[in-house]
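Problem 12. The chain below contains 144 residues. Write out its predicted structure in token notation.
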Amino acid sequence: MTASIRSGLFLLVAFVVMGTSPVAAQTPSPAGAKVYIINLKDGAEVTSPFLVQFGLSGMGVAPAGVEKPNTGHHHLLIDTKLTDEQMKEPIPADDTHKHFGGGQTEAVVTLSPGTHTLQLVLADWSHIPHSPPVMSEPITITVK
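Solution.
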């Protein structure tokens, strides 16, 4: 069992024992914090697999499950976006919502040929996006 799963299960059990809801409040982000994709620009053409480098300013990176002020970990959204309601909940983990809870600052991504959108979202120790959100502008890439 990974550390992030263990910490998530611990939190869920703690909430149940305390009789509170497992929905946590959003963690505040500092003014001016930004996340961005370093090595790819809107309209880029790539061959799969390709590298995505995550940039961050005004905050630090900490692994999921580690609660430290002004930190978070990266999530890469592929061909999707988060609704206003989803911005207040833990980001799901699936093929379109990639988690980097180990504190990774880059990833090798494999996508099928065609047009895709990519967007970075920084989330707190519990995978909930900060308030205000720290997220990049979505970019469109073409995989050859």
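Discussion. Residues 3-18 form the longest helix (16 residues). Students who got a different answer should revisit the alignment rule from Section 12.3.
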